[in-house]
Amino acid sequence: MKLNTLKPAEGSTQSRKRIGRGPGSGLGGTSTRGSKGAKSRSGYARKIGFEGGQMPLQRLVPKFGFKNINHVEYKAINLDVIQTLAEKKNLDKVSVADLQAAGFVSSKQLVKILGNGQLTKKVDVEANAFSKSAIAAIEAVGGTATKL
C-alpha cells in the first residue's frame, strides 16, 4: 500500500452542485430557487419562530406569572437527618460543613432545618435558616439553633 494510491471509499464523496453558472449547466436561471417569492430573493432570512404565516407558538401561548428577584432557595434538611448524622459521626455540633461532608448539600446551597422527625440527642446546629418547629425541637432537647 502506498499513500499516493489511497482513495476514499466508493460513494463516500460527492462533488457539490455548481449553481448559477449559465443555462448549459442545467442549474442556471433561477439557480434552483424557483420563481418569485421571498425565498427566491437575495438577502432572504426567515424570522426566528416563523411558522409559514401560522400564528407562532410564542405569540399563541399567553404570558403569566413573574420571577421574584428576592426569592432565596434553601436546601431543606429535616431533624431526623441531623439525628442520624449526629449518631453516626458522634457529633455534638452539626454545621453546614458537616452536612456538605456527608453529601447532603453542595457548597453553594443554603441550608434550612425543618422540624420533621425526632431529635433525641442534644445537638448544637448551625444553618442559614430554621423553621419554628425545628428551633422548638432543638431547644427542647437542650441544644442551640444558630443562624449563620
Tag the structure with descriptive keywords.
alpha/beta; three-stranded parallel beta sheet; elongated; about 150 residues; 6 strands
**H/E element sequence:** HEHEHEEEHE
**What global shape is seen?**
elongated
Percent helix: 10-25%
Category from helices, strands and their pairing:
alpha/beta
Record field, number of beta strands: 6
Note the total helix count.
Answer: 4
Would you identify the regions where 5 or more consecutive residues have pLDDT less than 50? Answer: none
Integer average pLDDT: 93
Largest sheet: 3 strands, parallel
Distance between the termini: 73 Å
- Please indicate the percent range of residues in DSSP E strands (runs of 2 or more): 5-15%
Placed side by side, the strands forming the largest sheet appear as: 1-3-5
C-alpha Rg (nearest Å): 34 Å
Verbal overview:
By secondary structure, this protein is an alpha/beta fold. It is 22% helix and 14% strand. The strands form two sheets. It has a three-stranded parallel β-sheet. The protein has a three-stranded parallel β-sheet with strand order 2-4-6. The model has no long low-confidence stretch (mean pLDDT 93).
List the helices and strands and how they pair.
Elements: H1 57-60, E1 74-78, H2 79-89, E2 93-94, H3 96-102, E3 110-114, E4 124-127, E5 129-130, H4 132-141, E6 145-147
Parallel strand pairs: 1-3, 2-4, 3-5, 4-6
